User: Fold this.
Amino acid sequence: MPGPQFGQEMGEKSWFRNNAQKIVLSLIVVLLAIGGFYFYKNYQERQALLKPALEEMQSLNATPSPQESPIASAANEQPQSSVLGVQQSKMAAPETRKENSNIIARAAKGNGATHLARQSLKEYLKDKSDLAGQLKAEQKIYIEDYLQKHVPRSKTLKVGDEITFSDSLIQDAISQAQKLTDKQINNLHKYVLLAPSLN
Assistant:
């Protein structure tokens, strides 16, 4: 007959103490594996959602062959413009009107704040041909971005929503655009290729 087992409870507690670090590390590894799996699954779902848009953008941005110089590819921009023109014809241009010293742009189907800012700038420059001739396409990109960021508006636009651009805001945007450095203008050039209507 065995004697009393006084150390049995102590043995179980000491086993847990001896293996606690291994248990915690095992749990961390399992949690990291589960987190990695969910991250990968979400990444795949996002890629599947973005794939059609990325393919459309790639088809619109035909890359020049390596033999072509940047000057030749810029001169050879007509096919890309016509492709973009087809896409832009599906989207209605925003309506603009002048009221006092404001230009009010109304969103049409497919328009965002940048579209409204672009149309408002066109309306503002309509009777200012000297100023319009001085602005480069890159500066116009900067101006429309400046306008859409600095005008009070709701985050999402619906058809018929209006944004009011004041003359003073447009003048401020033009002033800021005229201060751009050559490096900043070169950085903006890639966006000009996506908006041939600015040339």
